[in-house]
User: Fold this.
Amino acid sequence: MSRTGPADDGDELLTRLGTLTAQARAQAEVQRSRVELALALQRGMLPRDLPVARGVHLAVRYSPAYQGLNVGGDWYDAFTMPDGRIGLSIGDVQGHNIEAAAFMGQVRVGLRALASVDSEPGELLARTNDLLLSLGSKLFATCTFMRLDPVTGVLESARAGHLPCVWATADGRSGITEDEGGPPLGIARGMTYPVTRYRLATGGVFVMLTDGVVEGPSMTLDEGLDQAVRLAGVAAVAKMDADALAAAVIKGAERVGHDDDAAVLVIGHDGLRAQP
Assistant:
């Protein structure tokens, strides 16, 4: 009669461990491929160029962050509208996967397409909300959309459940916007989004951002916003250019822990009027 000895038991255990290790590696490779695909989707959907207008200075930064092997759906966008004004959007899609990245593209493209029909920020968000619901997705997105008149510096803003913007003026004042806002996009039909108007003074800046910039394990949302307000205030007084401010704000994401995507869009206006 044969008996299984300790050596046989050890061989069987090693075989099982080898099988489990191979399976774990295969699963990790599949997940890594999904992350790479999501990142490729994000990069492909973000704008390659920013609008150019006399007196307007735009700058962006984007830093994808991993939580495990997941990736989120933050975006920024800036484009020239048919009437010459500039559309600016920033937002964050619920979730951290390929579906979130793809949904981000739908929101961004929807905003651009509908802006050619009606560029009023509140109505634009309402139309985009209804469009997303018609697609039948279970995801939702927060978003801020602004319409900038490059001649006058007037900014019209509507928010869909998104963070407030940060502002600063050349005379040392700074803070966060306090517009009313509405619910995230993709939650329910028939939502309204109030519009608030601001004016960019000479040397002033507005900073649009996502929560990965100002909230994380090392810092609360309020603390992160305070940090961004201080940076914007210093930049405006020191006449720092928009690109340098965007770099400084995204750098601040490291101090909050940065376990989510981080996007920044800086808007500056030097007060110059276009030549007739």
Remarks:
- Helices lie at 6-45, 98-115, 121-134, 211-214, 221-237, 242-256.
- Residues 6-45 form the longest helix (40 residues).
- The mean pLDDT is 82.
- The two ends are 104 Å apart (CA to CA).
